[in-house]
C-alpha cells in the first residue's frame, strides 16, 4: 500500500454506503491507489457486458470441474455476498449456470467470481446476475466433491479471505482487505475526481487555440 493508504475507517460510514461508494470507483482507479496490488488476472473477466459487482467474499474451494461444494454453500449466502470460487482454473466444466445464479440472487447474493468456467451466460445476463469467470463452456459439472467453504482461496492469482471486499467491472476484479477498505475508498474517490477534472480540461478548447 502507498503511504496514503492506511488502516482505518471513515467516520460514520455504514456498510451500505461503503458498498455504494465502492461501486462508483473504477477497479482501475482502486488498483492504482493500492499500488496495483489485489487485481485479479485479466483472464477473470465479466461474462456479460455491463456487469458490475460489489460485495463481501463468501469463499469456496472446489475440485476442478466439480460444484458439489457450491451447492452446499448456497444456504449460507447472505445479502451482498459475492461467491468467490477457486475452481483450480479448470475450463472444461461449468461450475455454475442460470439455476445456481438465480438461487444465489434470491438469497441476496451480489454475484460470482470464479477461477473456472460457467454456462448459461445469456440467462445470467437476463437475470442480471454479475458473473466474472475464466471461460464459458456448455459442459456441466461433476457433483462428487471434495471442497471447502469460507477458507482462504487463490482466485485469478490473488489470495482472497472470507469477508474481503470484491469489486468487479468491465476492466476486471479487485480485492480489498477490510482493514484498508475505507482508506482505499477515500483515496480512490480523490483520484477519480482528479482524473475527471483532467478530462474536463482536455475537452475544453484552450484560449490559445
TrEMBL record:
The role this protein plays is: Catalyzes the aldol cleavage of 4-hydroxy-4-methyl-2-oxoglutarate (HMG) into 2 molecules of pyruvate. Also contains a secondary oxaloacetate (OAA) decarboxylase activity due to the common pyruvate enolate transition state formed following C-C bond cleavage in the retro-aldol and decarboxylation reactions.
Q: What is its EC number?
A: 4.1.1.112, 4.1.3.17
Q: Which family does it belong to?
A: Belongs to the class II aldolase/RraA-like family.
Q: Name one GO biological process term.
A: methylation
The superkingdom of the source organism is Bacteria
Q: Which GO terms describe its molecular function?
A: 4-hydroxy-4-methyl-2-oxoglutarate aldolase activity; metal ion binding; methyltransferase activity; oxaloacetate decarboxylase activity
What Gene3D superfamilies does the record point to? Ribonuclease E inhibitor RraA/RraA-like (3.50.30.40)
Write down the required cofactor(s): Mg(2+); a divalent metal cation
Write out the entry's keywords from A to Z: Magnesium, Metal-binding, Methyltransferase, Transferase
Q: How does it assemble?
A: Homotrimer.
**Annotated binding of Mg(2+), by residue:** 120
Q: What class of enzyme is it?
A: lyase
Question: What is catalysed by this protein?
Answer: oxaloacetate + H(+) = pyruvate + CO2; 4-hydroxy-4-methyl-2-oxoglutarate = 2 pyruvate
Name of this chain's protein: Putative 4-hydroxy-4-methyl-2-oxoglutarate aldolase
Which residues does the annotation say bind substrate?
A: 97-100, 119
Organism ancestry: Bacteria, Bacillati, Actinomycetota, Actinomycetes, Micrococcales
Pfam families in the cross-refs? RraA-like
Amino acid at each position: 500500500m502507498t503511504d496514503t493508504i492506511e488502516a482505518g475507517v471513515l467516520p460514520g460510514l455504514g456498510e451500505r454506503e461503503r458498498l455504494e461508494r465502492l461501486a462508483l470507483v473504477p477497479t482501475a482507479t482502486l488498483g492504482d491507489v493500492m499500488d496495483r496490488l489485489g487485481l485479479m488476472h485479466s483472464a477473470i473477466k465479466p461474462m456479460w457486458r455491463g456487469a458490475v459487482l460489489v460485495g463481501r467474499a463468501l469463499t469456496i474451494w472446489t475440485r476442478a470441474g466439480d460444484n458439489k461444494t457450491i451447492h452446499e454453500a448456497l444456504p449460507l449466502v447472505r445479502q451482498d455476498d459475492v461467491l468467490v470460487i477457486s475452481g483450480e482454473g479448470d475450463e472444461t466444466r461449468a461450475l455454475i449456470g442460470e439455476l445456481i445464479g438465480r438461487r444465489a440472487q434470491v438469497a441476496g447474493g451480489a454475484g460470482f467470481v470464479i477461477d473456472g468456467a460457467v454456462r448459461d451466460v445469456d440467462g445470467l445476463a437476463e437475470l442480471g446476475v454479475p458473473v466474472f469467470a475464466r471461460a464459458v463452456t456448455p459442459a456441466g459439472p461433476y457433483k462428487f466433491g471434495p471442497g471447502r467453504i469460507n477458507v482462504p482461496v487463490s482466485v485469478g492469482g490473488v489470495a482472497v479471505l472470507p469477508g474481503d471486499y470484491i469489486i468487479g467491472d468491465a476492466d476486471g476484479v479487485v480485492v480489498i482487505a477490510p482493514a484498508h477498505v475505507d482508506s482505499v475508498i477515500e483515496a480512490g474517490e480523490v483520484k477519480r475526481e482528479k482524473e475527471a477534472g483532467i478530462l474536463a480540461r482536455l475537452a475544453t478548447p484552450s484560449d490559445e487555440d
